[in-house]
Amino acid sequence: MSQFFDEQGKSVPVTLIEAGPCRITQLKSSETDGYQAVQIGFGEIREKLINKPAKGHLAKSGEDLVRHLIEYRVDDLDGIQLGGAVTVGDFAAGQKVDVSGDTMGRGFAGLQKRHGFSRGPMTHGSKNHRQPGSIGAGTTPGRIYPGKRMSGRYGGKKITTRGLTILKIDSDRNLLVVKGSVPGKPGSLLNIRPANRVGAKPAKGGK
Known about the structure:
The chain is mainly beta and 207 residues long. The chain is built from three helices and twelve strands.
């Protein structure tokens, strides 16, 4: 993370995200695929690391090979061309975005680290330092309820941070300056899309 000084001189914690340029590798229409979507590619890859079907698919939109592909549903394909580019210029300063990514994996973790439980006494003869304590009821029901918070794998899951604000766009370096933190460790792959706010769209049949 870094810091950004706004117009009032206040320091704001931000994350610098390299966004694109991404190439449009496929257009899907209602006539051929049953829905409308745009597939874009990002990242370079050596030719020997990609198979022939993927190479033939990418050849339809250009000669450059890309490492990552992702698809976005759209309402309209007007103005979108195969082989075109998606850049940071398609965003705007002040826009709200949702950022998805894989959280940092922490391996097998205990209750204190994974769930923030309090530990037991460390002295005075106590042997219950970091143990979970009781995890069930008794003879009835004779089992542990589903969803009981226990030790286990911590992190390494895909999550979405919603409603982050774009403070600045650096078109020369393809950077988005986003307020706050995003999932994952530095250098990880992120999915950035316009914020999907609850209540922003009317329900089916609504006004």
